Amino acid sequence: MKLKKVVLAAMTAVMLVTVASCGGQQNNAGDSAKSAVTGSITGSGSSALLPLVKDAAEKFKVNNKDVSISLNAGGSGTGLKQLADGSVDMGNSDVPAETKLSKDQAAKLTDHKVCVMTVATIVNKDVADTVKSVTRQQLQDIFTAKITNWKDVGGPDEAIVLVTRPKTSGTRALFKQYAINGAEESTNQSLETDNSGILVQSVAQNPGAIGYVALPYLVNDKTVGTLAVDGVAPTLENTYSGAYSVWGYEHIYTSKEPKAAVKTFIDYILSDAYGSRIEELGYGISGKMKTQEVH
User: Fold this and answer.
1) Is residue 20 part of a domain?
2) What's the rounded Cα separation, in Å, for the pair 263 and 93?
3) What dihedral do alpha carbons 176, 123, 284, 68 form, nearest 10°?
4) Alpha-carbon gap, residue 292 to 281, rounded angstroms
């Protein structure tokens, strides 16, 4: 009789473990099904933000295989206008929507601040060997074509070649406001591009060239040099501390009621699970900013 009780107790314990185990599997399956979404996501706009959004999309699709994601650059203004007219689900921008759209159009959108982007001034290697830093006034004079030879700022006797961005560029808007004191930048149509990758190549391939680009494009690039401004280098540390002022928040704009797939994707970018990737890619984490300056 005693043996039968022991056997019965053992069988009961096994049954309880089995039930608990099955219950756990059901919950996990439920959680997995709940977290996976379907549908499509389209986005365009900032080329500065494109590396982060593409990286996030690749990782997002690991657990959301049935979501199709199509992402393009084209400039902040283009992305915001396409979002406003319903052509895309996300408008990626380096600047607030109201700087590129009408007040009424901007009011219909929701702003998701995803990270901080530092804008670095870059130069061809032949210049970087001798010019390490310029003053803000010198930088303004270079980009407004008042200074046209590198010898005037301590560099080689060589013509300055501007590699510029179109007026739809959010990076250009940030650079204008925070790097060259709001001055109107000269345009070099032969080397104008809002593709950040092409801009880096153009600066690398043209002697005497200068341009500006989001810091993430320089993380693994050794083909160009960077210029400090008033002795302050364009680094994340200097951006966080407020010592370097040429930066802005990166925005993903959506409609007031985005599709489930879009909302889930943005939630993923803002999650702790993805947060560690932000600095690895060269962007800044908004919560680390010590300055109260509004960009």
Assistant:
1) no
2) 17
3) 90
4) 24
Cross-strand partners of 212: 121
How many structural domains does the chain have?
2
User: 196-235: string of b/e by CB count within 10 Å (b at 16+)?
Assistant: beebbbbbbebebbbbbbbbbbbeeeeebbbbbbeeeebb
Q: CA–CA separation, 132 vs 169, rounded Å?
A: 26
CATH number at residue 101: 3.40.190.10
CB 61 within 8 A of CB 69: yes
The range of the structural domain enclosing residue 130 comes to 118-241
Kindly state whether residue 19 falls inside one of the protein's structural domains: no
Indicate if the pLDDT at residue 17 is higher than 80: no
- Token duo for residue 55: 């990286």
Domain co-membership, 111 together with 253:
yes
Which is more confidently placed, 168 or 4? 168
Contact present, 234 and 211 (Cβ < 8 Å): no
Chain-centre distance for alpha carbon 8: 62
Residue with structure tokens 């109107």?
A: 184
Q: Flag whether the pTM goes above 0.85.
A: no
